[in-house]
Automatic annotation (TrEMBL):
The keyword Cell membrane applies. This is Glycine transporter domain-containing protein. Its main location: membrane. The keyword Iron does not apply. The chain crosses the membrane at residues 6-27, 34-51, 63-84. It holds the Pfam family Gly_transporter. GO terms for cellular component: plasma membrane. Keywords: Cell membrane, Membrane, Transmembrane, Transmembrane helix. It is a multi-pass membrane protein. It comes from the Eukaryota. Residues 10-84 form the Glycine transporter domain. It is found in: Cell membrane.
């Protein structure tokens, strides 16, 4: 990966974490359990990029190419809800 691609990838990771955290806060306001928070965080964080990739014909999807993104977004959502409830 070239340096410019690496920087864009890192910015994308920050954006995914921010989306997962936003979804976790919304799920917390609706009193969802931990599973619902993690699922909503993953779907929100990865859904927009997946739709974009499908419409542009970029395959494989980013979360299929890097499955660790599921753990990153789910973990960010769970950590956010744990810290928000303290």
């Amino acid at each position: 990966m070239e340096p410019a691609e690496s920087v864009l990838f890192i910015f994308g990771l920050f954006a995914m974490v921010a989306e997962a955290m936003t979804a976790a806060l919304a799920a917390g306001r609706r009193k969802m359990d931990w599973f619902g928070v993690a699922m909503l965080g993953c779907i929100t964080a990865l859904g927009g990029g997946s739709l974009r990739d499908v419409l542009l014909g970029h395959y494989p999807l980013l979360w299929v190419k890097y499955p660790s993104l599921l753990f990153l977004t789910g973990g960010a959502a769970l950590l956010t809800i744990a810290l928000a409830r303290v």
